[in-house]
Write a structure and sequence with these properties.
heterodimer, A: 1044 residues, mainly alpha, 0% strand, B: 187 residues, alpha+beta, Beta-Lactamase, five-stranded antiparallel beta sheet, 6 helices, globular, transport (chain B), Longin-like_dom_sf (chain B), membrane (chain B)
């Protein structure tokens, strides 16, 4: 049979252009055969080839037992291949892991350093708690190996052991500490230990305080920048615990900052000073000022330094860390940070974006959002297919294809290179920007927003630049929506939030929702390609329904809702639409002041027929929510249709004829009532239990008849209320909308005008589309028609934000001290029929009176009593709060993450009581583990033998009997070892500890006692073992007692 | 600590994958592909730090922003040499600038071992590539940063072979790769 080496495989791969997949499949088939061979060379070559192919995603988990075989070969190069294969292919669920343990132990104890290195490198990849317990005893002696390379690797391996099995540190830490304290130790080993201590340090800083003097010496000695970086990082976690360190650290750190030529060290110094709280500690002193100036100055230098994007990036990283604790330092650098938002490099932009979100205030919000909007608008939306082209991994695995030109691959790696392509705006970035804009604007219930008209325009514009959503997959539960890429939900929720909370711009919000819902404007309002932003319809649909009385074109909206395409919308949106339809119908049909003329009757009949026509097919919609609503409103509409046809129309020119009550009262009553207000999370829980509430005794024994009577009465008395509730909003709004037709006409004019002259003054709002700007301008002109202080932007470049005076006049006109305004007496009371301001004043404001004269009234969440800790999000935006809740409840371990949380519970204090108590607990736990392991081992062994037998049965057909026998013997051998090992686990630890005691001369005194105990009676074993552990852990204590 | 070290070429073909946590093969491949997509679109003026690929971004999002979480991979550092990208994924306990230097040490060590190293050397000697990395990083923790010690450590494990002479085109004009000893240690 032809046997291929790895070299042949790779070359073959390169020679099979176009048919790599077949070639690989063929090769794997060969490997399957070769790996079963008895020839170790062949076996290991096959394994090597499989490992190579594994890199491209070809599964080799089936070969895990063969990996073990090659690992156990006496030849070093086989071993090396085996270990590499194990590291690359073993996973958490690899069953042979248990069997590997013995091999690992054996190789750790090997006399050859290169062999010891193999398990040291492999253990971090394959370790599990039970194995850790077992190999620990073999690893510990390696800390004093004569080769520095072995010592440093052992330290790191022990650290990884500790991550899965924290108890490792109990015996290992004193020894590692010893190595660290040893000044004659190889610098590489010291550096490795510092690296490990740095990793451990942030979990348990208090345990490493005693090391501070030694670490400090290492820092001052200098020489190794790598180590200095780690030391500074470590000190940054120690200083909060030991403030005296700060004084000591400051001089060397300042010295390094001034002297070092290594930028990385300089950066970490600044980082350490900031993160270690050193700045606060020395605040006010002269040296404190110097340090602060030095740090911020250097960071700023990094930001503005030409040509080094890396420094810019890390400086932003540092700013991000201090933005919460030292906002003043960061805001000083606002200019350079804001510039980074427009950096060509996406990485830097992202960092700047994160930073800026924490920096915005009401002064710079408009400008910042403007910059971001400009980015979104100017970069084309990537179409979905492009994305998939790049994303091979999702569709198919990576295929190691043959390169057509090898010259590339021969290029020397000495010179670092970068490609020259311009960066596209990735979808993820778009989504992030939109999310960040929403986050910035909605912060603290819109604390930073002064102009809500502007915000609504921004939201509408955001819909247009929304990236397409990935798939049409229906997302049913809330949680997924939060995580999905679809920003339409976020935008929609903001619009809804503004409409509910900010009454003064509700009309504008409804306007925006109205234009979003309109089918004939869809091309204009949504991105031209992809389905981006469509989920905003869900919220727009709700707004047009709930605030139907604000609609300027209810008939057109109705037509859009009933459009055949609506039935194709996602079920969530469709359900909302179904709810909005009757609401709008009620507002169209419900006016009982207009006589029931034949014309009106015909109109109503037609409208209801259309609604019925739309609802009928939906009554069998697959979504239950849609189906239920469709059926309900279908019945309602049929009732209405009956009522309409049953009510004779009056003479159009004659007397007033009452419209059917069902239309004017019954249906509107379904949808009008108390106004919806935002309610704080958890407010329901706070509703106090009324005193003397007794739910058990009947209120009145004669309840039934009373209720019946009350119903009758209520119908009569409530009539007025219903009438008032229903008729008031429209009349009051009529005033407000009266000038609308004129303004719409003007809008058109303005639009035409816009096209010719707009770009002179488009600077401030160039991120908004032309039509939005035109509308804004028309509205502004309308609004300020009577305002002598308003400066027409056509005359001069306007400022983005509303001038302070204008906003006073607009928002707080009731409370402005008119007399305080000089020169002109503004008679706001009778501001003409077409001034919105005047009409706004007529709108009855029953809710809480305005407090901040300059601010727009924003409704907070309703709640009772003081907001409690968790519900302190009381005034928080609706969008943000559910996410936070999610993140709290969902503790998901991240990809690639090495969990070190178990270390947090372990104390390294040598002589403290809790440690002792834990040891007792631990011994019991360990015993349990050991028993468990024995069982597991036995089980594994049994399974393996079974498998072995099965495979032998298969093989026996072709192979010679002798071979089988031989194999069997070997297998049994391993099995025997395993069993032995399992039994010996308990003893081993004990013996090992005994050994250590022997080695330590100081402990010699204890030795006889130990000797006596070992052959001791069964019953006493447990107690004695405990004792022995204490001895070992209480090294310090033992030492002193011995010396006494 | 360091969570993963990856090397792939300009076409996204992996040359070295080392994950310091056990990860499903399919997830590994997806991660490589996502990082490749990110890295291959960088202009030359861009910095050497990548935004988190979607796979990692989603997992880091789940941790609350208020508590600093040093276990989560939060930094993707890369360097581009000729035809190869070198990538390190790490947590915030590593210094970003130091990682860039670490990649440099890695490449220099390879260059020292192979004499004017190129992608082909690494393709055909991927065991040596792994061994070199093993001298630099063990279990996600940096154990050595001195060039000579790294090289010494690799050489102690056996002869480092140059790629076979007949592979690829000759006349590269780079000189200095002793073709005499360039025998492939194929078993």
């Amino acid at each position: 049979m032809f046997e291929k080496s790895l070299y042949d495989l790779i070359r073959g791969l390169r020679n099979h252009k176009g048919s790599e997949k077949e070639y690989i499949a063929e090769s794997i088939k060969e490997c399957r055969k070769e790996i079963r061979s008895n020839d170790m060379d062949l076996k290991s070559t096959a394994l090597m080839k499989l490992t190579y192919l594994e890199m491209f995603g070809y599964d080799m988990s089936w070969a895990s037992f063969n990996v073990l075989e090659v690992m156990s070969s006496p030849k070093y190069r086989h071993k090396r291949t085996g270990y590499l294969a194990a590291v690359q292919s073993f996973r958490r669920d690899t069953e042979v892991l248990m069997l590997a343990e013995n091999q690992l132990k054996k190789d750790i104890s090997s006399p050859t350093p290169t062999v010891i290195s193999l398990p040291l490198g492999a253990i971090p990849h394959v370790i599990n708690p039970s194995m850790a317990n077992s190999v620990l005893s073999d690893l510990l002696p390696r800390l004093t190996h004569s080769h520095a390379a072995i010592r440093k690797k052992t330290v790191v391996t022990l650290y990884r052991l500790a991550l899965v099995y924290p108890e490792t540190l109990r015996p290992a830490w004193p020894k590692i500490k010893e190595r660290l304290q040893d000044e004659r130790e190889d610098p590489s080993v010291t550096a490795a230990i510092v690296n490990v201590v740095c990793e451990l340090g942030w979990r348990r800083p208090q345990d490493f305080l005693p090391l501070a003097p030694r670490l400090f010496d290492l820092l001052v000695e200098g020489g190794n920048n790598w180590m200095a970086i780690k030391l500074i990082k470590l000190f940054a976690t120690l200083t909060p615990l030991e403030p005296r360190l700060i004084k000591k650290l400051l001089p060397p750190l300042t010295k390094i900052m001034k002297e070092t030529s290594a930028m990385s060290l300089l950066y970490e110094c600044i980082n350490g000073i900031i993160q270690g709280g050193i700045l606060e500690a020395v605040e006010g002193t002269s040296e404190g000022e110097e340090v602060a100036r030095l740090c911020v100055g250097k960071l700023r230098g990094m930001m503005v330094m030409e040509g080094d994007a890396n420094l810019k990036y890390v400086a932003l990283l540092a700013f991000e860390k201090i933005v919460c604790s030292h906002p003043h330092l960061v805001s000083q650098q606002q200019d350079v940070i804001l510039d980074c938002i427009d950096d060509p490099d996406i990485s830097i932009r992202m960092r700047a974006l994160d930073l800026v979100v924490g920096m915005v205030n009401s002064d710079n919000l408009t400008a910042t959002v403007g910059r971001l909007m400009r980015q979104l608008r100017n970069a084309p939306i990537a179409s979905a297919p492009d994305d998939h082209m790049n994303d091979r991994g999702r569709t198919s695995g990576v295929v190691p294809y043959a390169e057509s030109d090898d010259s590339d691959a021969e290029e020397s790696l000495r010179h670092e290179q970068r490609s020259n392509q311009p960066p596209p705006l990735p979808e993820e970035y778009r989504v992030t920007v939109i999310r960040r804009i929403l986050e910035m604007c909605s912060r603290d219930t819109y604390a930073n927003i002064t102009d809500f008209d502007w915000y609504i325009d921004v939201l509408v514009q955001l819909v247009r630049v929304s990236p397409a959503t990935k798939a049409e997959t229906e997302i049913e539960d809330e949680e997924d929506i939060e995580d999905s890429d679809d920003v339409g939900h976020g935008i929609g929720r903001q619009l809804q939030n503004v409409a509910v909370r900010v009454k003064s711009v509700r009309a504008e919000a409804v306007d925006a929702a109205q234009s979003l819902v309109m089918v004939d404007r869809r091309d204009q309002m949504f991105p031209s390609s992809g389905n981006g932003g469509l989920s905003v319809l869900e919220y727009a649909g709700w707004i047009v329904g709930e605030y139907a009385s604000y609609l300027t074109q209810p008939d057109a909206v109705m037509t859009s809702l009933l459009h055949p395409t609506s039935a194709q919308l996602p079920s969530r949106t469709l359900a909302i639409y179904l709810q909005a339809i009757p609401k709008i119908f009620a507002s169209i049909s419900g006016n009982d002041q207009i006589s029931w003329t034949p014309e009106r009757k015909t109109l109503m009949t037609l409208l209801m027929a259309r609604i019925i026509h739309f609802l009928e097919p939906l009554s069998t919609h697959p979504s239950l929510e849609v189906q239920e609503r469709a059926v309900e409103y279908l019945e309602l509409m049929r009732l209405g249709a009956e009522a309409v046809s049953g009510t004779a129309a009056g003479d159009p020119h004659g007397d007033f004829t009452d419209p059917p009550l069902l239309l004017t009262q019954a249906i509107p009553a379904l949808f009008t009532g108390a106004e919806l207000n935002p309610v704080a999370r958890g407010a329901q829980r706070k509703v106090p239990f009324p005193e003397g509430l007794d739910l058990d005794t009947p209120i009145n024994s004669n309840l039934h008849s009373l209720l019946a009577q009350a119903e009758l009465e209520a119908f009569e008395t409530e009539e007025d209320d219903v009438y008032a509730a229903y008729s008031e909003p429209p009349t009051s709004y009529l005033g407000a909308t009266a000038p609308q037709p004129i303004s719409a006409a003007e809008r058109l004019d303005a639009k035409q005008q816009k096209e010719t002259t707009s770009y002179q003054n488009a600077v401030e709002e160039e991120y908004l589309d032309a039509d939005i700007i035109a509308r804004r301008k028309a509205e502004r002109r309308e609004r300020y028609r009577d305002d002598p202080f308003y400066i027409d932007p056509d005359a001069k470049q306007g400022s983005g934000a509303v001038t302070p005076l204008a906003s006073i006049v607009r928002a707080g006109n009731e409370e402005v001290d008119i007399d305080a305004i000089p020169i002109m007496d503004l008679d706001l009371g009778n501001g003409g029929g077409n001034s919105r301001r005047a009409s706004e004043q007529q709108v009855p404001r029953t809710r809480s009176p305005r407090k901040a004269p300059r601010r727009v009234e924003i409704m907070g969440d309703e709640t009772l009593g003081p907001a409690e800790g968790e519900a302190s999000s009381g005034r928080e935006d609706i969008v943000a709060s559910p996410r936070r809740l999610n993140s709290g409840s969902k503790v998901k371990r991240g990809l690639l993450e090495v969990d070190s949380s178990s270390l947090g519970a372990l104390s390294l204090e040598d002589d403290d009581g809790s440690g002792r108590r834990m040891t007792k607990l631990d011994i019991e736990r360990r015993e349990q583990e050991e028993a468990e392991m024995r069982r597991a081992l036995a089980e594994v062994e049994r399974k393996r033998l079974e498998l072995q037998r099965m495979s032998e049965k298969v093989e026996s057909k072709g192979e010679v009997a002798v071979k089988r026998k031989k194999k069997k013997v070997r297998k049994v051998d391993i099995g025997g070892e395993e069993l032995e090992n399992a039994e010996a686990v308990v003893g081993e630890i004990r013996e090992d500890e005994g050994e250590k005691v022997v080695k330590k001369k100081k402990k010699k005194v204890k030795k006889p006692e130990e000797g006596e105990e070992v052959p001791g009676q069964e019953g006493a074993v447990k107690r004695k073992r405990k004792k022995r552990r204490e001895i070992m852990l209480d090294e310090g204590g033992v030492e002193s007692s011995v010396q006494d | 600590m360091i969570n993963a070290v990856l090397v792939f070429n300009n076409a996204g073909q992996p040359r070295l994958t080392k994950f310091y946590t056990q990860l499903e093969t399919s997830v590994q491949q997806r991660l490589i592909s996502e990082i490749f997509t990110l890295v291959s679109n960088r202009p030359n003026s861009a910095c050497n730090f990548l935004p988190l690929p979607p796979l990692l971004a989603s997992s880091s999002k789940s941790s609350t922003p208020t508590t600093p979480h040093n276990d989560t991979p939060s930094l993707v550092t890369y360097r581009h040499y000729a035809t190869l990208y070198f990538i390190i994924i790490s947590t915030s306990t590593e210094s970003p600038l130091a990682l860039l230097d670490l990649i440099q040490v890695f490449v220099q060590a390879l260059d020292g071992l192979f004499e004017n190293v190129c992608e082909l050397d690494l393709i055909f000697n991927f065991e040596t590539l792994h061994a070199t990395l093993g001298e630099l990083i063990v279990g996600g923790v940096v154990v050595e940063t001195q060039l000579d010690k790294v090289i010494e450590g690799v050489k102690a494990q056996g002869r480092v072979a140059k790629r076979p002479v007949n592979e690829g085109k000759s006349g590269l004009g780079l000189g200095g790769f002793g073709r005499g000893e360039g025998v492939w240690a194929g078993r």
